């Protein structure tokens, strides 16, 4: 059965049948394959004067050439994709990292001197806590009693850091696949144009 020149097929054998060649990107002489060159041209390589290239489908999956709504335009002979990919921060969706800051209890000591002295001294010696004419004591406990009414400002600061994560290693980008040969027809029927 004759095939059209330039037809590519999957072949499960480990050899290319007569009048066929593996699609391994090899260069062929134009003067020995004029019919195939008139179909392929230099789409897959070659200098166009003495050589032209066959498609190289080793480690690649074929994809339809052309363009259309919602798809990336693909030129015939264009090679796309990579076996491995490394993501950068531009490839990640917006996200936040959680930072944990723990609460720590602390105490503040305020020394108050309690020494003997006169309650009517203008400048009490040794920092005596006293007011002229006021009772600074109570015979009964009073939870609302407060001395001095002073506030002490306290500055509290904490340092929190988020550590780096990830290693930046590349990962395989290959779909589940099976190694098999693609072959191209070198000699046969010349395909008529519609």
UniProtKB/TrEMBL annotation:
Residues 6-62 form the Phage tail collar domain. It comes from the Bacteria. It holds the Pfam family Collar. Coiled coil: none annotated. SUPFAM superfamilies: Receptor-binding domain of short tail fibre protein gp12 (SSF88874). This is Phage tail protein. It comes from Polaribacter aquimarinus.
